[in-house]
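User: Please fill in residues for this 314-position structure.
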C-alpha cells in the first residue's frame, strides 16, 4: 500500500509502527528525562517552530521542557545566510522558553528540496501521573485553532494577501507568532489539577489542526467525545485568511492551542482567563467511542485526520 503525502495516519501507525515497536515503545518513561518525538517543518521559520513543537509536545506529556536538540537538513545549493536565519530562530526560541541547546546536526543533502528541521526536547516529568479520561469530563480548548498556520500564511503569502485584505489584518495574522508557546497555559493547568486533585490529560496542537488534536485526545482518553464546533476559539484573521486559500482552519497547523480535560471545565476556563489565556469549554467525553462534532443543528462523526492543507500551499 502506497503511503500518502504528509504525516502517517493513525491506522498506518498502528499497523506499521506501534505493532512492530510493541514492548520497546514507551510514551512516558519512568526516567527523569523524556525526549519528544521529532516534528518536521519546512521553511526559514522551521528552526523556531521546531523548538516550539518539541517543547509543546513535552507539555502535553506532562513534562516540563529543559533542553532541546535540532537536526537541520538543507537542499543542495542553499546559502549560508539561510542556515544563519534558521539557527537564529532556534536560539531565539530556546532563550524565550528557557531551554538549553545541548547539541544538533546540520547537513546539506539531495534528500530534501527545501529546508527541514526536526527538534527533540527533554525535560522533567510532572509528579502527577496521567490517567485515561472518564466519560463526562469536560474538554477545554486554550488558545486558538489554526494559529501557527495563520502565522505562516500571513508571513509567506503576504503579497498575495495584501492584494485582497488591509495591511492591519495581514499584520495581525503575522503577530499570532507571539502566542505559539503553550508553557504558561500548561503551568496553569498543572496547578489547577494539583489544587483540585485531578489527574492531568492534555493534547498540544500540531499539524492537522484541532480536529487531529481531538482525535488524539480521544485515543489517549480511551473514550469518544461530543464537541460544539462553534465554541472552538478561532481568530477572525484565521477565518479570513483560510477562506482566501480555501483551507479548513480546523484542520490546519495549530501550534499554540492545547486541549485539556477537567471535571469542572467552567472553573478551568475561569482560571486560564484569569491568567490572560483565551479558553473555552467546547465539549465533553462520552461513554461510547463516537467522535461527534456539532455545528448548530448538524451533527457528524469526526473522520480520520487528513494531511495538513498547508503542505500544498507553502
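Assistant: Residues filled in for all 314 positions:
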Amino acid at each position: 500500500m502506497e503511503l500518502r503525502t504528509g504525516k502517517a495516519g493513525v491506522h498506518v501507525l498502528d499497523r506499521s509502527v506501534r505493532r512492530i515497536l510493541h514492548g520497546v515503545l514507551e510514551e512516558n518513561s519512568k526516567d527523569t528525562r523524556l525526549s519528544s518525538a521529532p516534528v518536521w517543518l519546512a521553511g526559514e521559520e522551521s528552526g523556531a517552530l521546531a523548538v516550539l513543537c518539541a517543547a509543546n509536545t513535552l507539555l502535553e506529556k506532562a513534562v516540563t521542557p529543559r533542553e532541546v536538540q535540532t537536526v537541520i537538513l538543507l537542499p543542495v545549493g542553499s546559502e549560508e545566510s539561510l542556515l544563519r536565519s534558521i539557527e537564529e530562530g532556534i536560539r531565539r526560541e530556546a532563550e524565550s522558553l528557557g531551554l538549553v541547546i545541548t547539541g544538533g546536526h546540520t547537513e546539506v543533502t539531495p534528500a530534501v528540496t527545501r529546508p527541514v528541521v526536526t527538534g527533540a526536547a527533554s525535560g522533567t516529568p510532572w509528579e502527577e501521573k496521567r490517567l485515561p479520561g472518564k466519560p463526562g469530563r469536560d474538554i477545554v480548548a486554550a488558545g486558538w485553532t489554526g494559529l501557527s498556520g495563520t502565522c505562516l500564511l500571513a508571513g509567506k503569502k503576504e503579497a498575495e494577501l495584501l492584494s485582497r485584505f488591509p495591511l492591519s489584518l495581514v499584520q495581525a495574522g503575522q503577530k499570532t507568532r507571539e502566542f505559539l508557546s503553550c508553557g504558561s497555559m500548561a503551568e496553569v493547568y498543572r496547578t489547577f489539577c494539583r489544587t483540585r486533585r485531578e489527574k492531568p490529560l492534555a493534547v498540544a496542537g500540531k499539524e492537522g489542526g484541532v480536529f487531529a488534536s481531538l482525535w488524539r485526545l480521544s485515543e489517549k482518553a480511551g473514550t469518544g467525545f461530543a464537541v460544539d464546533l462553534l465554541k472552538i476559539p478561532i481568530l477572525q484573521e484565521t477565518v479570513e485568511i483560510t477562506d482566501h486559500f480555501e483551507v479548513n482552519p480546523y484542520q490546519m497547523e495549530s501550534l499554540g492551542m492545547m486541549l485539556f480535560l477537567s471535571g469542572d471545565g467552567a472553573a478551568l476556563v475561569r482560571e486560564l482567563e484569569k491568567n490572560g489565556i483565551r479558553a473555552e469549554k467546547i465539549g465533553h467525553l462520552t461513554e461510547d467511542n463516537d467522535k461527534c462534532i456539532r455545528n448548530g443543528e448538524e451533527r457528524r462523526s469526526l473522520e480520520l485526520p487528513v494531511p495538513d492543507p498547508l503542505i500544498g500551499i507553502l
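For context: The longest helix spans residues 80-97.
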